[in-house]
Design brief:
Blueprint (H helix, E strand, L loop, with lengths): L5 H10 L6 H13 L1 H8 L5 E2 L2 E5 L9 H18 L6 E6 L5 H14 L3 E5 L5 H10 L4 E5 L8 E8 L9 H10 L15 E4 L1 H14 L6 H6 L2 E4 L9 H7 L5 E3 L25 H10 L3 E5 L6 E6 L5 E4 L1 H19 L5 E6 L5 H9 L2 E5 L3 H10 L4 E7 L3 E4 L8 H17 L4 H12 L1 E10 L2 H17 L4 E2 L2 E8 L4 E4 L5 E3 L8 E5 L4 E6 L5 E10 L7 H18 L4
Parallel strand pairs: 3-4, 3-5, 4-7, 8-9, 8-10, 13-14, 13-15
Antiparallel strand pairs: 1-2, 2-6, 5-6, 10-11, 11-12, 15-16, 17-24, 18-19, 19-20, 19-22, 20-21, 22-23, 23-24
Helix pairs in contact: 2-3, 4-5, 4-7, 8-10, 12-13, 12-16
The protein binds 1,6-di-O-phosphono-alpha-D-glucopyranose and magnesium ion.
The site of 1,6-di-O-phosphono-alpha-D-glucopyranose has 18 residues, from loops.
GO molecular function, one term: magnesium ion binding
Family: Belongs to the phosphohexose mutase family.
InterPro entries: A-D-PHexomutase_a/b/a-I, A-D-PHexomutase_a/b/a-I/II/III, A-D-PHexomutase_a/b/a-II, A-D-PHexomutase_a/b/a-III, A-D-PHexomutase_C_sf, A-D-PHexomutase_CS, Alpha-D-phosphohexomutase_SF
Length: about 575
Amino acid sequence: MQHKDSNIQARIDEWLTPIFDTTTQQEIHNLQNTDPKELEESFYKNLEFGTGGMRGIMGVGTNRINKYTLGKNTQGLSNYLKRTFPEIQPKAVIAYDCRNQSDTLAKLVADVFSANGIKVFLFSELRPTPELSFAVKELGCQCGIVLTASHNPPEYNGYKVYWEDGGQLVPPQDAEIIQEIDSLTYADIKFDATPELIELIDDKIDQVFIERSVKNGSFVATSEAKKQTKIVFTSLHGTSITLVPETLKQAGYTDVHIVAEQASPDGNFPTVVSPNPEEPEALEMAMKLAREIDADIVIGTDPDCDRLGIAVKNNEGNLQLLNGNQTMVTMTWFLLEHYKMQGLKGNEFIASTIVSTPMMRNLAEAYNVDYKEVLTGFKWIAKLIKDFPDKHFIGGGEESFGFMVGDFVRDKDAVTATLLACEIVAYAKDKGSSFYNMLLDLYTKHGCYKESLISLVKKGRDGAKEIQQTMIDLRTKAPKEIGGEKVVLIEDYQESTSENTQDHTVTTLDVPKSNVLIFYTEEGSKIAARPSGTEPKIKFYISVQAPLKEESDYKAVETKLDQKIHAIKSDLKLD
Ligand SMILES: O=P([O-])(O)O[C@H]1O[C@H](COP(=O)(O)O)[C@@H](O)[C@H](O)[C@H]1O
Ligand SMILES: [Mg+2]
């Protein structure tokens, strides 16, 4: 049956030509007979670069992750690399995670690069994404690729692309590469490897990376306190198992308990509904073990080991999950204190993103360091390091459970962040305090913030339309009040405008355009809305705040903040 959209039909027809193998063609025929809707979803567009590389469901079609889409990407990237670095033989390093097909797709990417005369370093086993970012610089590569879909559901895979500084691609380079890819046909892909150009790397990078991570994530905690820090760690079937336990050991942590049921890498993630540390259920097994053995801290990393979920003991002695904003402010504060002790030089900065807690700005002001805020995605934070070579990046992160310590890895890094979290627990032990108490102390000094993220899943082509429509509605029928609080400022990152709703003055936002809306209320609440760039979701980020005089008032203030969040959610019909 012919598809009513001739563009879609032309793509399907192309994929039924002999350039594509018989398995692919057979799969297309099966979809034509059994699932025309899925066929349309698979061909209605090409995969795009989003917040963290290119991500999609594995399967046949131009909008799916398979050997042809990734082959064409790599062919385009090879052409672009050769054009950008005409004087040298470009070098690329490739890593992959635990997902089904990640290893074979990594091999395919290596083959295509080598077929184009590009020198390839390939990890022979799964490894964390931050190690790849490190390896790009360490091996003097011009490019790096990780085959991963991060924390997405099991049916996804993806292609994160790093450039010579170790950070992910940022505009306009991603658009230039897409242009190169789009100018090719599938027949242009060179699949025949030049094996002598592919070098397997393992121990060579592992040990240096571990040593440097230990250095980067160790500060002042005594070895005694480290030994007393009881840690439960889970790799959630992902890559961190290859390095994090060893890194903790080399950093001096001896009381480390790994969740055995989740230690083996597995792309089906059999023990979790979602391998995303943002979801409380992901850490359930780790929490159970931690309660049994009375651990001080629980840490779980996502499949490619760049984000981490943390639980620490609260003042009642119960383990409490923290969100990404809470770990970020505590980690940032710890680093700021450290550098203050050493004597700040005046060129330091911390960084975060527009959808993260405003508390980061307060911290920067209190320590008199610069605060830089960028669009969602660590690629933008990494870009700051590149753009401000004379400035010293202390650290920073995002609400999405990721943190970056200094500039040695140019992406969020759950290896060093794991060490930093444990360091804070150990340091607090030395001081007779706790991680949790340190966070409460920050609330008394810098304002008590509470954040909540609501993600609405809207799958496929129809879902994407619905998400776009919600953004249009929010723009055209912008709320005057949210949760009973008057909206006083609206930032529209697509239009680059910041509008004072009282006097209607408009100023220009000096950041690249992006489909994001942020509403600020009279009472200091902040509500951001944007389509996810990695998953079929629209995300709403709510941040509310109130002063906190004494730590003992925390429960009461928290209840008040929860009520505010509830009112905002019900007003926006998000509950
Ligand atoms: O998914 P990861 O771990 O590669 O992480 C990437 O995607 C996340 C989700 O992005 P979005 O909200 O657009 O879905 C971002 O928060 C993060 O900064 C980025 O590095
Ligand atoms: Mg990840």
